[in-house]
Amino acid sequence: MSEEQAFDIVVLGAGPAGYGAALYGASAGLKIGIVERDRVGGTCLQRGCVPAKEYLETAAVYRGIRGAAEFGITSSDPVVDFAVSQQRKQSVVDKLTGGLAGLMKSRGIVTYQGNGTYLGAGRISVSTGESIVGDKVIVAAGSRPRSIPGFDIDGKYVLTSDEVLSLTELPKTVAIVGGGVIGCEFASLMADLGSSVTIIEALPRLLPGVDQDLVDVMVRSFKKRGIAIKTGVGVTGHTPDGAVTTLTLADGSSLTVNQIVVAIGRQPNSEGIFGDGASVTVSDRGFVEVDQHYQTSEPGVYAIGDLIDTAQLAHVGFAEGVAVVKTILGEASPPVDYSRVPWCIYTHPEIAFAGFTEQQAREHGFDPIVKKDPLGGNSRARIIGEVDGFVKVVADRVTHQVLGVHIVGPWATELLSPGYLAVNWEASAEELAQFIQPHPTLSEAFGETVFSLTGRSLHVG
């Protein structure tokens, strides 16, 4: 035991949940050790959120150039060099990774590079041969893309998000299996950059769980841009043949494409991280089981992020990491309210929301009233030439408490913040109406919508 380095907290995994907990704990004066088999930042920074959004920005720049004539700007036909886009993406990732590693080091966090296994009694073994011990342990090993039978990930015909984000050339034709957030984001960016895209979703609609009004706007945009959508049908297999492969659907139809992207969600990395001496319970689905304060079945051991069955969002991982450290410090630490977390979908148009839909509000015992402000009447939306979308606010009919905010349109993900705060502060329309909205801005749409809930309004009926 004398050879083991001891810490107040040892964190297994340096993705958003893990490094968030480490940074927060270190800022509180705790001695932190963290184990990461890859580069710090985890899936989000290395193979997920950040690189995907960098490519989506590439698509936005390309759209802007192609539409420049509408603003009186003449340019030659733009050409996408995806290899250059790949280089820029990697540059962004590398700079953020270096900055994060430097920040962790400046706060005294000791990082161990290698695979970690929790052995029990606070001890973690690292594949490099080192052994460390923590008074408390936080397991945040993250997740990986799911696959489906008959679709072995080979990097040539069948890809997951990991492989797509490493491409130097986009396929001419692609089938995206899965119409959730990941599938729709990849469909949007690949179509904008010139691929012929088909989305195949086994459920009756895209983006299950998202307000249907928002999804309808996105679907209309997808169809205008040539994205084919097949819902209510599964896939059974595929047959490669040279540069293409033929996908077989459950309804007996087929589709021939250059590549298939499997985007059906992610599964927790719980295999192999617990040794025989650990007494941590893992569910049949691979999620680590925790109580409301994220403590596992073994006292002093916590689990957060994609390893537990909560919303697989980087910012949720941050929040869970902060909550665990507060618990360890003996501070008041209410669990994350998952019904009110912000959701952001970076398709074109963007989608963002927090809180209840109208139906969910009814299910929770409220009598909801809904107000909607289409962006067609918003000055800034007209100026930038993107008027497809709206702000939709769900409130209690009697108290006018804001229960949910749903936005679809340009920069929706950036516009959500005041709506998210309103939902989580349980603010009323009357309270929010006192705040002056800057003009002309897209954010006026939220202000005008809540203003109309007071019974009087300016531009919103």
Automatic annotation (TrEMBL):
Occurrences of domain FAD/NAD(P)-binding (ranges): 7-321
Keywords carried by this UniProt record: Cytoplasm, Disulfide bond, FAD, Flavoprotein, NAD, Oxidoreductase, Redox-active center
Cellular location(s): Cytoplasm
Domain named Pyridine nucleotide-disulphide oxidoreductase dimerisation: residues: 341-448
Cofactor: FAD
Cofactor binding summary note: Binds 1 FAD per subunit.
PANTHER family xrefs: DIHYDROLIPOYL DEHYDROGENASE (PTHR22912:SF217), DISULFIDE OXIDOREDUCTASE (PTHR22912)
Assigned protein family: Belongs to the class-I pyridine nucleotide-disulfide oxidoreductase family.
Protein name: Dihydrolipoyl dehydrogenase
Originating organism: Ferrimicrobium acidiphilum
